[in-house]
Amino acid sequence: MKRKHFLQTVLGASIGSSITYPFQNLDKQTNDQLLKLVERPVTGSMYAYADEAIPKVRVGLIGCGNRGKSLIEMFPYLIENGFAEIVALCDIRIEERNKAAEKLRQYQSTVPSLYGKDENDWQQLVKQDDVDLVLICTPWRWHTPMALYGMEQGKHVASEVPIAYSIEDCWKLIETAEKTRRHCIMIENCCYNDEELWLLNMVKEGVFGDITHTEGAYLHDLRAHLLSEDYYEGQWRLMQHKERDGNFYTTHGLGPCSMYLDIGRGDRYDHLSSMSSRELNLSKTAKAQGSPHTDIMCGDLNTTLIKTAKGKSIMLQFDVHTGRPYSRINKLVGTNAVHDGYPSKLYVDNGELIYWGHKWLEPNEYDAYKEKYRHPMINKLESISKNFKQGHGGMDFVMMYRLIRCLNLGLPLDLNVYDGVMWSAITPLSELSVVSKSTSVVVPDFTGGLWDKHNVVEIMRDI
Ligand SMILES: NC(=O)c1ccc[n+]([C@@H]2O[C@H](COP(=O)([O-])OP(=O)(O)OC[C@H]3O[C@@H](n4cnc5c(N)ncnc54)[C@H](O)[C@@H]3O)[C@@H](O)[C@H]2O)c1
User: Fold this and answer.
1) 255 with 200, same domain?
2) What is the DSSP letter of 360?
3) Hey, which of 93, 125, 137 would you mutate to test ligand 1's pocket, going by the most ligand atoms within 8 Å of its Cβ?
4) 398 within some domain
């Protein structure tokens, strides 16, 4: 990839015109200087931000592909109880948009406005007077422009993952949220999974002692999806793998890990180092399938190590090329306990020093911890949600319920603009490190210095 194009992708659109090349090699010092070029003044003022209560949240959904249609299925309970209404749908693929409208008809008697006559028609949806919340389920390149425009038009916005993949876009999202006082969140559903919420509850109850290390990942064999000509509109996701190398899907692993570590609520990422393996699996499969897309740039497995300001470490992996069972790893290491995911196992240290025979908890002991420390939100929502489709084992419903109810009640949301940006920014930073021989890259402080001052973990609240 041409270096100018690389820097535009990683740093942001403005960089191409603002620098010509004094830099021969990307090294730590150069990387840090480059990051400074796109930095914006932010204040952290969206921490604990609550807007006026919205008794019925009127939603405009952009992108009615796989994800958009499945998120509609999280709404029946919210619609039935008058908490939400989907008032507009947009997709440039009219057939998919109509399928989404058809699905919605099963749950909702009012008819949404329909958009999608061209790739900018979503702006008309955003401008529709009665839209309170814009839900963005499009390919990645649209997330930031749609979120920015939404806020500028006075709307709250919730975007699918990742909310941005250039550093400049990360800054712009925060700057715009702070300026417009609109909620801007990335809807990271894995933060709402039963197991992750159970671990978070145990962290808060002190079961793990002091946390030293976590591991998260997105290990998901997506070869069939990526190479299909139908699954992702225009094979948009495969194109990313042809043009970039790093960790493109940080947030499913990093979101929950960041909650365990109090990132943005007492700690922050300080620096990272990232390395990708060689690429073999996707191109080999493409060749075997007769696909013309054999020129893959993204390595099969990316490993990124992040150190926090308070000295904790995170190991994050990304691999969607290799045939293997799904995993987000979900490892958590503390001074009193250790958890490993996939499958979930727990070790609790009883303080006794032994030479041999350290064992994971027996199933009955494990179950007792599971029962005792289940997140109260899950107990509460289980009875509500059992009659409804829940999505990804339940977490999608819990996420959508919490988002809509926080807006109904005029409460700060569980996730904020800083969370979405911090978790997403690891993608371009990983690319910068990969291309410069895994050199250490500083992670900008996107919170205006407030990461240490706001310790409310909203996702732990009972609402
Ligand atoms: N959180 C999760 O568990 C999860 C799961 C799947 C996908 N996702 C995310 O959801 C997003 C969408 O993924 P997907 O699998 O649904 O992809 P998809 O290709 O099935 O759907 C994207 C849709 O956006 C539409 N679109 C593209 N440009 C548009 C425009 N300018 N205006 C209106 N519509 C436009 C496309 O026509 C398509 O129907 C991605 O960001 C992905 O990362 C998240």
Assistant:
1) yes
2) P
3) 137
4) no
Residue at 5 is within a domain: no
Do residues 348 and 441 both lie within one domain?
A: yes
Query: Ligand 1 pocket, 54 CB below 6 A?
Result: no
Nearest atom (ligand 1) to Cα of 67: 16
Using CA positions, which residue lies closest to atom 38 of ligand 1?
65
Contact 60 CB / ligand 1 (< 6 Å)? no
Residue 206, burial from CB neighbour count under 10 angstroms (0-12, 13-18, 19+): exposed
* Residue at which a domain ends, from 188, 220, 253: 188
Question: Ligand 1 pocket, 89 CB below 6 A?
Answer: no
Together in a domain, 294 and 153:
no
Calculate how far, in angstroms, residue 111's C-alpha sits from the geometric centre of ligand 1. Answer: 22
**Alpha carbon of 89 to ligand 1 centroid (Å):** 13
The closest-lying atom of ligand 1 relative to the alpha carbon of residue 121 is: 32
Residue 435 is part of a domain; what is its CATH number?
3.30.360.10
Q: Which sign does the torsion angle of CA 239, 240, 245, 251 carry?
A: negative
- Nearest one of 456, 385, 376 to 416, comparing CA atoms: 456
- The pLDDT tens digits for 141-181 are 999 999 999 999 999 999 999 999 999 999 999 999 999 99
Nearest CA to ligand 1 atom 34: 91
* Residue 19 resides in a domain: no
From 61, 64, 67, the mutation candidate for ligand 1 (largest count of ligand atoms within 8 A of CB) is: 67
- Reported as a single tens digit per residue, the pLDDT across 243-296 is 999 999 999 999 999 999 999 999 999 999 999 999 999 999 999 999 999 999
pTM confidence score: 0.97
Same domain, 108 and 145: yes
Q: Print the domain residue range for 114.
A: 57-188
% of the chain with per-residue pLDDT over 70: 97
Q: CATH code at 98?
A: 3.40.50.720
Give me the number of domains the chain comprises. 2
Quick one: which of 57, 51, 139, 78 has its CA closest to 396?
78
Contact 34, 3 (CB under 8 A): no
At 12, list the tokens: 């942001």
Q: How far is the CA of 49 from the centre of ligand 1 (A)?
A: 28
Instruction: Enter the tokens of residue 96.
Output: 């998919």
